[in-house]
Fold:
Amino acid sequence: MQSTRTRRKVAPVAENGDTADKLDQLVLSSAICNGEDIGPFIRKAFASGKPETLHHHLRQFARSKESEIEEVCKAHYQDFILAVDDLRSLLSDVESLKSSLWESNSKLQSVGVPLLKSLDAFVEARNVSRNVNLALESVGVCIRLTELCSRSNYHLSNHNFYMALKCVDSIESEFLDKTQSSTLKRMLEKKIPEIRSHIERKVSKEFGDWLVEIRVVSRNLGQLAIGQASAARQREEDLRIKQRQAEEQSRLSLRDCVYALEEEDEEGLSGGVGDDSNGGSAILGFDLTPLYRAYHIHQTLGLEDRFKQYYFENRKLQLTSDFQVSSMTPFLESHQTFFAQIAGFFIVEDRILRTGGGLISKMEVENLWETAVSKMCSVLEDQFSRMQTANHLLLIKDYVSLLGVTLRRYGY
Structure:
């Protein structure tokens, strides 16, 4: 068997008697056998004006190769015959397979066409069903969304701001992303911040009105509390007088009377500016509902710290303004109102500290109290320096002592 790898063939060396044409033919044959480029030979033949010689050499080379081809064909003649027979038998098998495939395809088409039609109808029905389900789901979302919007408007009209905010939060967290209507979604994205801003403005206005109202209430509350402290002190003095009188008499005969007086005194001391169930006073009511509602709404809006700071700054400003003594009115005439305002301020702050849920801290109340004590000392020093009558000094001092007794009952 001949090797498939082409080897370089070397042309035989010409003998001394060979002609130049024979040598050229050998060189050309060697170049063709080795797969070299014969372009130089062609250019040389045309340059020398002898293309016929090149043509003759090529014919000679072709004749030499034809004999080789004949030898190969003779050597593999039987294989060629077998290959042709195989191809003929394969051709008949191919024709048979082609006919079988055509029949199978016809049967498949006859069976598959109705199935394809049914499949198309099924796909269309499924798409319609899916669209209907999506439409029903969207309508359901819109209905629930509309109900929440209506409920939110109802709570807003009734000034029930907390429930309105809860409805708005539900709309934003549960339904806004599920809404298929882009128009409705844009409207909600625009209105939700407006509703929250509206609620914040409303509760801030109520809180501002409460700040104005609580100043008047604080003054009346302070006057009442100081009056109660004065009455309690008077009862104590009366009790001591009666006890001294009783001690001068027989202790055995009047023991029950002394005990009765002590019980009456305890009942009198226990009565004061007490708490009631509405966050006000049992004797003089003051309403903290606007304050706590504003605090609760700001907590819901995530603005708790800002409201705490706003509340503390406003109350501190109110306390500072309470220490402004009018030069048009003598301090002897206005000192009771002055100290009553301070007493009422800290009575209210004590209530807020105990019931406000962290609106103001004990440290902040103590800072306010220290500021108030410092300013009261400054005001008293200034006013006492202007007074010439000892009775006036004693009168104011007595009222200051009542202020101390009153606020001591509230932990100051």
About this structure: Residues 15 and 307 are 121 Å apart (CA to CA). Residues 37-158 form one domain. The chain is about 80% helix and 0% strand.
